[in-house]
């Protein structure tokens, strides 16, 4: 078992003991998770270049507060 940042333990996964179908599903899940993390990192990097971002008169991001009212869906970035 491995410990994660939030203190929960994760079980180790042996890809060699999985069936081909299980392995493919697992790898697709990991790829999707990595793509999402990369998209979030790109968005955060872009946001940090500006003091504030306003969409339709509403401040969705400012240096002083959290990100509000902005939703990114799969395929947007």
Description:
- The protein is an alpha+beta fold and 77 residues long.
- It has one domain.
- It contains 1 helix and 4 strands.
- The strands form 2 sheets. It has a two-stranded antiparallel ribbon.
- β1 and β2 form a beta hairpin.
Secondary-structure map:
Elements: E1 2-3, E2 9-10, H1 20-47, E3 52-55, E4 58-62
Antiparallel strand pairs: 1-2, 3-4
Q: From the helix content, strand content and strand pairing, which structural class follows? A: alpha+beta
| Separate helix tally | 1
Average pLDDT works out at 80
State which percent range the strand residues make up: 15-25%
Which runs of at least 5 residues are low in confidence (pLDDT < 50)? none
Largest sheet: 2 strands, antiparallel
Instruction: Tell me the distance between the termini.
Output: 35 Å
Summary?
The protein is of the alpha+beta class. The protein contains one helix and four strands.
Task: From the structure above, extract its key features.
77 residues; alpha+beta; two-stranded antiparallel sheet; 1 helix; 4 strands
